[in-house]
Amino acid sequence: MFMRGQFKTSLACVAAVSLLLAACGSDDAASETSDAPVESTAESTDDPVDTTAESGGGDGVAAAQARVDEFSQTLTEIGITDTVAVPADLEVFYAQCPVPVCEQIAQGLQKAVDAVGGTLTIQAYDGSPEGTQAAFQSGVQAAPDIFMSSGNPVEWYEQELVEFEALGIPVVQWSIPGGLVPDGMTANLITGGDYYFQGALIADWIVAETGGEANVLAMNMGGTFPVLGLEQQGFENQMAEVCPDCKLNVQEISLDQLLAGEHISVAISEFQKDPEINYIFTGFGDMLIGLHEALADNGLAEGVPSASQAGTTANYQLIADGKQAIDIGLPSEFLAYRALDAGLRALAGQDIGQVDARPLTDVAGASDTPGAEDILIAGLPMQILTADTVGDPTTPWAGIEGFQDQFLALWETGS
To answer: Rounded to two decimals, what is the model's pTM?
Structure first.
């Protein structure tokens, strides 16, 4: 049966996917577990492959494996085909959050904007409500052609959204709970539905890999960061759907615990209580850094693999070393190019563009979960990265090889 930790979805903070995320407050409540089984509320889908199941073996494992097979494929096309004009003397403003992935995105944006002869202004901020609001207000005062930022609580900059709209400036963001086009914004390129689906996909991987005999330690931060709460819901709902007899121990980690490294102590304690745990799931890749080594130093979890999402090259090295089994990749430079593409389309009065949903994206409970809309239609690739597909572990995942040239072929500069 499932052993469930209780997690809360706070609206006070929104995740930017990666280490330490944004510096916003959280509850420090201890994790709890219970022996109550999880019940799935999802209905059967009309997919060609039956992706629902009534038991932890047989049909459930097959359904999980079908989705794993689909999302192990490497995509080759960006999926957007309409051309768009690039205005002369383009000016882009990026309010950069204080985490490593945002720096990677900034580097990608610089390449993209340079490629079309534009100018990029970057203003870093500290992740506080005041710092975030100040960065957005700086964007208003700069009056660029396009404004960009990521996953901050909307209430921190509501007035600035009104001002951007009055000025006719597109606002392109990502990692916001909700759909592709939230109120007051031009685009949300990593939707709440994308996070939900990532959790479901990781559940499918674990069930398929364990043959429906999973005993999972899951550590996440849904009580602090709403998009990670959606990811956790997707994980739990899909585990209940494809393997209701699998065992799941969910531990909610607070921001203070993460900053102090106490999530590692939590994992050690849980393995001491239950040495039969055979898989580890964390809400994002940086939570795994140092975890396998600490468990080994305590004589625990020998050979137990892990799975996560939005990993860095440190996670890719863990995969190459055989410690982490998979990462659901976040292509940071691809995201930067897609953000510029969406902004250009808004400037030109076009639809921001979207792609057809891939097969098997209708997962358990998504349609009943607020904030889990628009799964994989924004145009970002999603792939299960393994030792066979991660490539050079020192290089960030591209998402689609040669995507830069594919975008550039659509951007008409008039030169």
So the answer is: 0.84
